[in-house]
Hints:
Elements: H1 14-23, H2 26-43, H3 52-84
Helix pairs in contact: 1-3, 2-3
Amino acid sequence: MTVSLTFTIEEEEFYKEMANLLQLRGPELQKMVDIFQDLQALLVVEECDPELEEVMSKVKTFRRSLVRVDLRLHEITQMIDGFTNPPPPASTIPPTDSTK
């Protein structure tokens, strides 16, 4: 389950906060590197066929980690875009004609 958070920070702390949010996925990235290396080692065993069950399990784990990291990168991209291209204040948005 995921939860969306909203919080306020000082403008000058924005990029530092983005770095902090990204850093929270650092251990996951290291885990992905380890899994990737394990997968390569499993697949290049020449004496016998690779343990396919273990290979598939590691692929599944790697893909789940990849999704979590990609989601965090997407969230950070959206936050940076919102920070650098804020929407106009509500008072400057022209009203729409709802009768059309």
